[in-house]
Amino acid sequence: MTGSAQKVLSEDFYHRETLIVARELLGMRLVRMDHGQRISGRIVETEAYCGEEDQGCHCKAGRTPRTQVMYGPPGRAYVYFIYGMHWLLNFVTEPVGQPGAVLIRGLLPEEGQQLIAARRKGQPEHRWMDGPAKICQALAIDGALNGQEVCRGDGELFVERTPPPETRRIHTTPRIGLDSVPEPWKSIPWRFLLKGQGN
DNA sequence: AGCACGATTAACT
DNA sequence: GTTAATCGTGCTC
Predict the structure, then answer these.
(1) What's the DSSP call for residue A164?
(2) CA of A134 to C1' of C2 (A)
(3) A136 CA → B2 C1’, Å
(4) Is the entire prediction scored with pTM above 0.90?
């Protein structure tokens, strides 16, 4: 086993409460393999979507072709299309049969800047991946990755463990874009942000 | 078979 | 602060 493989978050990491996974993903390094080259960034913003009871979660509709992957094993990508033009990346959490996912909303670029710049044409570096759809654009992520394992170092997409950030750098707010979702789901603070370096 | 709406973004004023 | 762009999904008829 190589050194880098040991740093890759395994299925066990995702096989936990969605809120825990969303919080602990902050600071970790998301890696996208692009034709043998690494594109990566530190995760600085996430949101938790927690099962059928959560009226902000797609799983409120139950098991459908779209939500199927969230009911499957953890450590998979849930990638879906929205607003007729954008892809969004999530990681599936919780045991099989218990749906949940963490939306990746913000990354600070670390590797592959040249490749990112080519896809985020004309944008300044601090705007490259400061939104969930921008991440998918920068990392060339679309529906083809839906359902793929993200807990293997030899995959196209995975996360590497980093030293945990200081607790005081972690902030929470309500989730974004759930205006028509009923309370308490609309206001519950399930958005997690890592502050303090570059944001 | 048809339709309303959305876990967004960029480009406006 | 506002708005258009654009289409898959899930619900209704």
Answers:
(1) P
(2) 21
(3) 31
(4) yes
By C1' distance from the Cα of A146, the closest nucleotide is C8
- Cα dihedral A154→A79→A14→A149 (10° resolution): -30
Estimate to the nearest angstrom the gap between the alpha carbon of A96 and the chain centroid. 19
Query: Which A residues 113-132 have CB within 7 Å of strand C?
Result: none
Rounded (5°) CA angle A54-A160-A167: 60
Q: What CA–CA distances, in Å, run from A101 to A19, A126, A182, A190?
A: 9, 26, 19, 12
Token pair recorded at residue A15: 């096989």
In this structure, is the CB of residue A66 within 7 Å of any atom belonging to strand C?
yes
Helix (H, G, I), strand (E, B) or coil at A83: coil
Query: What is the C-alpha separation between A171 and A45, in angstroms, rounded?
Result: 9
Taking Cα atoms as reference points, which of A107, A91, A70 lies closest to residue A9? Answer: A91
Closest protein residue to B5 (Cα–C1'): A83
A60: DSSP letter: G
Q: Which DSSP state fits A143?
A: G
Q: Which residues of chain A have pLDDT under 70?
A: 1-5, 197-199
